[in-house]
Amino acid sequence: MVVYYCCSCPLPTAGLVVPWRWMAVAGQVPVLLMIVLLSFMPDSPRFLVSKGKEDKALDALVWLRGANAEYWWEYERIKESFSEQNRPVSWREIKQPYIWKPLAITLLMRFLQQLSGVTPILVYLQVIFNSTEVILEPQYDAVIVGAVRLASVAVATFSMDKVGRKVLLCISAIIMLASNLTLGFYIHFIPQYSHNSAIMVNSSSHEGLATSWISGLTVIPLIATMVFIVGYAIGWGPITWLLMAEILPLKARGTVSGLCVLVSWLTAFVLTKVFLLVKAQYGLEVPFFFFGAICIVNLIFTFFIPETKGRSLEQIESYFRTRQK
Predict the structure, then answer these.
(1) pLDDT in tens, 9-33
(2) The whole model's pTM is what?
(3) N or C end of the chain: smaller count of CB under 10 Å?
């Protein structure tokens, strides 16, 4: 993830001086770099065990975990659970808490992640700035967004194993809530207030100072949007993808992961289509108040997500099994 962002972040910056065709070519650099790096990555121990390559599975565990006593326990647990995780999930099993609880958590995470508004905000960034009269040249939007996302994802990557997933998710939801409410209240109150203030100062001797003060308010949407991106990128952005891979049952992980991605992008598509319709009919502040309400739901929902920091996949699955007893 960090490699991808490190490679892709300079691309918006290059867009200031490079034609879009060369930008499209430059976009292949992260892909090629990932292909090269993946060629040095061993297959997962679970995959190697499934193919009967137990010696290579041990080597992969040593490469991933280091030569210590813990990986022996993990290797034995993988072997024991291999036959179980390759058995198809029956309808009766889906009704069991250790199956449906992680499925429900994962699907809701993907759904709530998109409902927090990240895709419409990024897609209609220039529309939002134009509507809020932000004094910013259009070509600099992507540069700022890319730089902020890069720094935020780097922070999340190096802190989620130290701070914990749940703490970052809570912080992320609070930051996004504050940003959405700031944008909503700004759009609802400030333009009218600025208009009335401008009328009042036109007849006064302090017109220049007042105009400067009013113009200074237009930086608020830019700051609020950047703060929102920071909040999303340190928590509900990358961590929901990570948790999807961690808490899903091993034997249902492939199918359900695809379903989660489908739910995520269908939600993003619908929000993107509806955003402008709501803006035109009810005003631009309404979507942001809705996104803020969803962030409150995200914050509450975080308390129902188990902490996976420092746990193996087998331990996480065991957690859901033992909780039903």
Answers:
(1) 555 566 667 776 777 787 788 888 8
(2) 0.75
(3) C
Rounded to whole angstroms, the Cα distance separating 193 from 200 reads 11
**pLDDT tens digit string along 232-267?**
988 898 888 888 888 887 667 777 788 888 888 899
- The whole-angstrom separation of Cα 52 and Cα 239 is 32
Other beta carbons within 10 angstroms of residue 99's beta carbon come to 23
In the chain, where the domains are located: 93-323
Q: Would the pLDDT of 69 be above 60?
A: no
How far apart, in whole angstroms, are the C-alpha atoms of residue 211 and residue 201? Answer: 8
d(CA 260, CA 203): 59
